[in-house]
Amino acid sequence: MKMNVRGWLIGLAAWALAMTAGAQYQQIVNNQTLTGLSDTAGDEKIFMVYAPTVGTLEVKTWGGTGNANLYVRHGAVPTTTVYDHRSMGATNNEEVSDPHASTGWHYIMIKAQTAYSDLNVRFRFWSELYNGQYLPVMPVAGAQASSRIFRFWVPQGQDLLRVQTGGGTGDADLYLKHDDFPTTADYDHRSFLSGNNETINVTSPAWGWWYAMVHGYTAYNGLNIVKAYAGSLSNGAVMIVGLSADANAWKFMTINVASQAQYFHVQSWGGTGNANLHVGPDLLAGSMGGWLQSAGPTNDEELRPPGPIAAGLQWIGLQGPQAFNDCRVGATYANATPQPVTFNPPGGTYAGSQSVFLSTTTPNFTIRYTTDGSDVNYGSPRYSSPIHVSATRTIKARVFSTTTVPGASYWATYTIGLTSPIFRFYSPVSGSHFYTRNQAERDHLIANLSHAWNYEGTAWHAFATQAANTTPIYRFYSPLSGSHFYTRNEAEKDHIIANLSHAWNYEGISWYAYATQAANTVPVYRFYSPVSGSHFYTRNQAERDHIIANLSHAWSYEGISYYAFAAPAG
User: Fold this and answer.
1) With the CA atoms of 539, 545, 546 and 549 taken in that order, what torsion angle do they form, in degrees rounded to the nearest 10?
2) Alpha-carbon gap, residue 224 to 212, rounded angstroms
3) Phi, psi (degrees; rounded to nearest 5) at 527
4) How many CB atoms lie within 10 A of CB 534?
5) pLDDT for the residue numbered 238
6) Would you say 387 and 344 are in contact if contact means Cβ atoms under 8 Å apart?
7) Which backbone phi and psi does 559 adopt, to 5 degrees?
8) Which of 63, 190, 223, 556 has a CA between 20 and 30 Å from the CA of residue 458?
9) DSSP 3-state of 550
């Protein structure tokens, strides 16, 4: 991130000047309370307070007797007519708060509306710290014994709160307190190592406002601060509650890697919007863009950080250019990867419904799957029984295990083919039969050539497109005899094209059928007539037997040509 170096240097110089130069009025430092103040009616007291950056400025008076009013102005002493903020109650209890107070000197005037005594005044200033965002945009600097206060909100039900500082030079310590400003003597948590690198972790933090104080043990410069609250993930588990955040806001989770692991897998999915996925062990580095990330156009992201993964907390963050809602996250660490998923039957084109069995040799496994082609995640359905496929669909499957990270996704597409009727015609003119699956061709013959062709109905059913384990049925036409010839034999087709093209025109593939018998299929028998030079095909066993017994002088039986369906399939 680019820094406004010039602005930061000017601010630092102003702060140094304010700390070292004499002040015209009494200075109140951050979180300081002055007590026992008194004055006569019409008189006024002036104090100076300094805001080191843009933030929230709060001034309060209370206690004692009488009536003192409060005025605040940036850059100059206020009057009763010129001020930025004022509070004019009937007692000494007054309060002014400016959430966008400018950097620099602010002047406080306490004006005695009536005489007052034993009044208290307190000045507070803080910067807001947002989840996962390190502040300020320019690094923080301070003198020895100086304090900078940051405020942030923690919602209910968080598993962990972390506040972390780092970078720069010098030695700044970190103090943390719930619901009030911390001091070096009054705090809930503190970290006071040498240097600026400090970390405080609070498990199951109380909800509400928290305040962090960066205190200069020595002078310091160039320090960054970040905080985050997070839910926790168990190894291989799913965060069931949907995760939501505004555009550019962070939502965090952690997973505790119990011991060094070779493999680590994190996945986000579901909901709406666009959340990018970030993973890393150091919160401060992540907030400054140093984490591994996956940045697709939706919430569906996946990361496999390179191993080995050290023991300890891993931070998982969601943040995106758009708001996101109802997103989920799962994570696993392990020292092995799983074996593949096996599909039985394999993907392909089938005539009818299939029961698909999924299996793997991975120990302690769970197979999760989808049937709509979407990616498999920790929340996908768990495989427990064969998957019934009655229409064309893609099954994706993935192994999840207590001893491995999730494996690669495997998939198989099952095309459930619909068969077409094969129509049969007989010509008393040529004594030959004609077969077609083309309904328009059938209708044309019936409408225009019924004097030459008698429609005999549906002969059998076959595939219009190739299904698994089927072969094409090739069609030829002879202008010499006016008959058609059909074969599934590739060599026979090639022989006719190469040697008999003067007598037979190749018309392409008519349909697809099985070379060997498949479930629910029947044989299609083939005959040849040396008298007419034509072929005849039938699935009717009684018709076959009648021709063999009574018409063998005119028809030679050539056996089973292929297998088709007696009724519609698919």
Assistant:
1) 150
2) 13
3) -125, 155
4) 22
5) 66
6) no
7) 95, -165
8) 556
9) helix
* Cα–Cα distance, 160 to 238 (Å, whole number): 18
pLDDT at 404 over 90: no
| 73 close to 82: Cβ distance less than 8 angstroms | yes
Task: Give the residues across from 56 on adjacent strands.
Answer: 126
Which stretches does DSSP call E strand in 437-530?
Answer: 454-463, 470-478, 483-487, 505-514, 521-529
Dist. CA 256–CA 231, nearest whole Å: 11
Query: Alpha carbon 203 to chain centroid distance?
Result: 27
Calculate the CA 348 to chain-centre distance: 30
144, 145, 149, 155 alpha-carbon torsion, rounded to 10°: 110
pLDDT for the residue numbered 63:
97
What is the per-residue pLDDT across 522-554, written as a single tens digit (0 to 9) for each?
999 999 999 888 999 999 999 999 999 999 999
Task: Check: CB of residue 478 under 8 Å from CB of residue 507.
Answer: no
Residue found under tokens 């209370």: 62
Residue-by-residue DSSP string for 208-223: EEEEEEEEEEEEEEEE
Q: How far apart are CA 149 and CA 182, in angstroms?
A: 9
Decide if 173 contacts 236 (C-beta within 8 A).
no
Q: Convert the pLDDT of each residue in 453-495 to its tens digit.
A: 999 999 999 998 888 789 999 999 999 888 999 999 999 999 9
**What number of helices (H) and strands (E) belong to the chain?**
5, 41
DSSP secondary structure string for all residues of 60-86 = EEE-SBS-EEEEEEESS---SSS-SEE
User: Residue 203, class by beta-carbon neighbours within 10 Å (0-12 exposed, 13-18 middle, 19+ buried)?
Assistant: exposed
Cis peptide before 136, with omega less than 30 degrees from 0? Answer: yes
Give the CA dihedral 81, 86, 87, 93, nearest 10 degrees. Answer: -120
